Fold these 2 entries.
Entry 1:
Amino acid sequence: MDWENNGAKICLFCIFLLVLANAYVWQFIFSLDGNLKIIFFDVGEGDSIFVVTPQGHQILIDGGPGERVLDKLAKVMPFWDKSLDLVVLTHPEYDHLSGLNKVLANYQVANVLWNGIKRDTAVFREWEEALKKEKAKVIIAQAGEQLKAGMLWGMVLNPLNSLQGQLFEKDSNVSSVILRFIYGRNSFLLTGDAPEKAEQAVISTDTDLDTQLLKVAHHGSRTSTSLDFLANVKPQVAVISCGRNNLYGHPDQTVLQNLLEFGINVLRTDLRGDIIVTADGSNLHF
Ligand SMILES: [Zn+2]
């Protein structure tokens, strides 16, 4: 009996089983069933949203704080896939950007969409370096900019004009890239940490804001999600991405009350963990 040979065979068989298991898990999560998937990763107090189209386009919007996003991506992407079609940074603050720096270091990113502003922070300097090294195509966000990935169509709503090169000394929430995605009759509005001032700016452009799913801005802070904005967006579902027992008291009770009054179904990452939404072109499933 050739034990060494047998050992190698067993080893190969185990590897085969692992590959099969990984492929199965991946297919389970992202079966190419003609549906679009959006996952709001539970990254604690921050935002990180992963979108996969039925054609397999992979888009990551923000990376959350720290490097939790790497584990999250590893769970939903096949282990051999180390590339992303598009990375969006809504605004360069730690709770949206930190994880993206790790993503750029570990993944080949084809396109980066962000607002091009400047911040005087360590995490921002790391971003500038990472972006230089990445050699991705960089798109500076400005209202009217359009994206297309298979049947998924996106449009930038904020900032209204290019902010490229502008230094934001305090925080950059008002510069948040607001993106509206359309997939068949499904629609999603992703708002970063945009405060009421940015909401008013977008409303003033008379763009169609009517959207099925709203990613509530700034983790449910009372500085965003004004009644006027809700009346324009009229979402069926609102997703709040915030940390369990976070220090900021997010989401704010007033915001929750307003969402309730509009009869909006609220999904929270602090209560549910990762939130997976499936869009079939007309209805949303979660
Ligand atoms: Zn934030």
Note: The two ends are 54 Å apart (CA to CA).
Entry 2:
Amino acid sequence: MQSLSAGALSARAAARALASEGLDVALFERNRLGFGASSRNIGFVFLHGRKGVSLDIARRNRLLLDNFHDEMGGDFEYRRNGGLVLCESQGQLSLIKEFVDARRRDGLNIEFIDRQSLLELAPDVDENVVGASFCSEDAQIGTATVVRALAGSAVRSGATVLEGYEVLEILTAGGRVTGISTHAGRFDAPIVVWATGPWHRMATSSGPLELPVKSMRNQLIATTPQLPRLKCVLYGAICLAAYTPLVKDLPSFSPDLFDRRETKAGECMMDAISQRSDGSYVFGGPVDDAGFSWEPDVDGVGRILRRFVRLFPGLFRERIQGKLGRPHSLYLRQPPHH
Ligand SMILES: Cc1cc2nc3c(=O)[nH]c(=O)nc-3n(C[C@H](O)[C@H](O)[C@H](O)COP(=O)(O)OP(=O)(O)OC[C@H]3O[C@@H](n4cnc5c(N)ncnc54)[C@H](O)[C@@H]3O)c2cc1C
């Protein structure tokens, strides 16, 4: 074996790239394909809030998605309809227009659209929303479908995918990686790609592996499938607070412009909404340091609901989908014990 990968989206991308270079690759997943953050992701490919190197990387990612989508004959969920940040009051109008002008100077394909144009993309938005910034470079993916497509492509290039295989230790000798150990035995390889997201801590023969990964919780809720209405991903205006470096020096910026009733000190309220290809809406959500929990946090769900009742009053006649209605706690302080 020449290369071993462990993890989801990142590991499958690595496995596919290595296998297509002709290396003998095995991919280890201790649960099932896309078990981690990759299957619970809200699907934003959002360039709106990026500049400099971060924008270059995000554009490169979009190009990879474009090429991979073509190569796969459209065999994963990928919508290239752009993305929005809502302007929720007259008071925010100057700031959002200044934001758009600044982002255009940064080289982004972005414009301000009025309420009438906005309604063509987001017909159910609250009557107080006066317009939005629209970036045509934003997109939306069904991350679980991308994971499956990457794994399929890796297998076709000769990689082996091993689900239910937990990596117990990274083996090293003389300061070099030599392979991994699992319950099913030892696998030797000179290259190991360790891409296990929040489960990044691992024992190696030469001591513990500690990566500088910060663990956080991101809560979302989802509805049952509805008729397709929302044409692109969008954020409420509160998200601009998460992008403070991009707005804080603009002449009209003031923290008082934002409705922060549902935001708590020390956390970031992402204020995101998307409609997936099965018609379900996904809303999120507070991002905080709550540690690991797979169970709903009533406070977080309540705040998400109140926020989106304000933005999309009509949608909340819908039932919340049981399984996906759980907030997903994926960025961990400690690995889960299961
Ligand atoms: C709720 C939520 C919403 C998000 N929304 C967005 C978004 O809209 N846009 C965006 O760009 N990003 C978003 N993200 C971030 C994005 O989902 C992650 O950056 C990405 O999915 C990480 O992929 P990964 O492959 O690195 O990790 P993961 O998808 O977490 O995969 C890690 C995998 O490793 C496996 N594993 C762990 N330990 C072992 C072991 N010892 N042996 C074998 N396998 C092991 C796990 O079972 C898991 O399947 C979101 C994240 C969350 C949590």
Note: The first strand starts at residue 3 and ends at 7.
